[in-house]
TrEMBL record:
Belongs to the FBXO31 family. InterPro entries: F-box-like_dom_sf (IPR036047), F-box_dom (IPR001810), FBXO31/39 (IPR045048). Pfam families: Cyclin_D1_bind (PF12014), F-box-like (PF12937). Pathway: Protein modification; protein ubiquitination. Residues 1-46 form the F-box domain. Keywords: Ubl conjugation pathway. It comes from the Eukaryota. It comes from Sinanodonta woodiana (Chinese pond mussel). PROSITE patterns: FBOX. This is F-box domain-containing protein. The lineage of its organism: Eukaryota, Metazoa, Spiralia, Lophotrochozoa, Mollusca. SUPFAM superfamilies: F-box domain.
Length: 391
């Protein structure tokens, strides 16, 4: 029996199992198979299964076109990314939006209890039957862009692979009086960064800001039996505004690490901001927390015999008067756990990084604080509720 003697429905089902490249080859062998291979339901299934595309609504194109023109080439972009191309870093998410693939930056606002804000950077859509990359930042938006996958680079002796989204238009250098600067500063202000530091950011990023160097965001898996689940958090960094961090566990050192997803000229994105020493829990009373000096003198206090370190231990919590700030006025008067920790501090340009002694204070599963004993400041962190799909 010849392949073509099979009923068309069965042939279509068989074709659905072929890898896309083989399917394309089959299409070249005969017109009958080519027509069968164009069956929409087959491509709809592929779009959904391989690239999670639920509908072709707003695309003005068939599933076959979306798959063969857009997804094969750009489908690998879907999901969450981060960048460390400059000290500021950033979190990016690539999703389907109204008949296109949209690359957006997500950033926190001054209040850590608000949701993240997003701004579009690039889009990929089908125009006149061809996939078209557009830059959505700068003047005369949109204008042409491009994607370069898996660019290899050796930087500081480290081998990195990034995907680059590039603007093909030449954005002129703009001065502080320009409309673009004003628009940019309005958009950036919501992060809570002070104006002087924003002006530095403009100077440091303006030439590169229409190019994105992305690497995949890998989130640590959820782990039962831990005092707090890993994940993404927003945290207050005084003059630098609100920053994004990833909480993960380091089993070798028995520490919690808070790694910067967004950073600043002092401690850049990609560096660890706080190391929580899980071997050094504390239980403090209210009086001990009233003055910073008393807190600084506390080494590892005696723990009650029933404390075994594996579960949380509710205890009084107050922010010492010298460190009080807006965000901590309505905090509860009890916390679930308290540990010695150390935090990275550095001069401008990440020069002479050293550690500041601090306390890590878990308030709930979603909220914790860091008391910077040497800096007289208190940072508050809140878990990010938005979901980011990672590979
Ligand atoms: Zn551009």
């Amino acid at each position: 029996m010849h392949l073509l003697d099979l009923p068309p429905e069965l042939l279509t089902t068989l074709l659905a199992y072929l890898p896309a490249r083989d399917l394309a080859r089959v299409c070249q062998t005969c017109i009958f198979l080519r027509d069968l291979a164009r069956t929409e339901s087959l491509w709809q299934q592929r779009c959904r299964k391989e690239y999670k595309l639920k509908t072709n609504k707003n695309w003005n194109a068939s599933y076959f076109e979306i798959y063969s023109k857009v997804l094969i080439k750009y489908g690998a972009l879907l999901g969450a990314w981060k960048t460390t191309m400059n000290c500021y870093g950033g979190l990016f998410n690539v999703t389907y939006c109204l008949g296109q693939i949209l690359v957006e930056e997500y950033f926190p606002t001054k209040c850590i209890f608000d949701s993240l804000k997003s701004i579009p950077w690039f889009s990929i859509s089908l125009e006149n039957g061809e996939a078209t990359v557009k830059c959505l930042q700068g003047f005369d938006v949109p204008h042409p862009g491009d994607v370069k996958f898996d660019q290899e680079e050796v930087k500081d002796g480290k081998h990195t692979v990034t995907t680059n989204l590039i603007c093909l238009s030449s954005h002129q250098e703009e001065n502080e009086d320009s409309e673009e600067f004003q628009r940019w500063i309005e958009q950036e202000k919501v992060r809570g960064t002070i104006q002087e530091l924003l002006e530095i950011k403009w100077q440091l990023t303006k030439e590169k800001k229409h190019q994105l160097q992305l690497s995949p965001l890998v989130l640590p898996p959820l782990t039962p039996d831990r005092i707090i689940q890993p994940g993404l958090f927003k945290g207050t960094y005084s003059a630098h505004g609100t920053e994004l961090l990833m909480l993960s566990y380091s089993d070798e050192t028995q520490e919690i690490h808070l790694t910067k997803i967004t950073g600043d000229p002092n401690v850049p994105a990609g560096e660890i901001s706080v190391y929580v020493d899980l071997r050094r829990p504390m239980i403090l009373n209210r009086e001990q927390q009233e003055s910073l000096q008393t807190l600084k003198d506390i080494d590892t206090p005696d723990l009650p015999p029933e404390f075994d370190g594996t579960r949380n231990f509710s205890q009084p919590f107050i922010v010492p008067r010298q460190c009080e700030m807006e965000d901590c006025r309505d905090l509860p008067t009890f916390c679930k756990a308290r540990y010695h920790s150390k935090g990275t501090i550095a001069a401008f340009g990440y020069q002479n990084p050293t550690f500041s002694n601090n306390h890590w204070i878990m308030i709930s599963e979603d909220v914790f604080g860091v008391l910077w004993l040497d800096l007289y400041s208190f940072s508050l962190f809140n878990r990010i509720k938005e979901e980011f799909k990672t590979s």
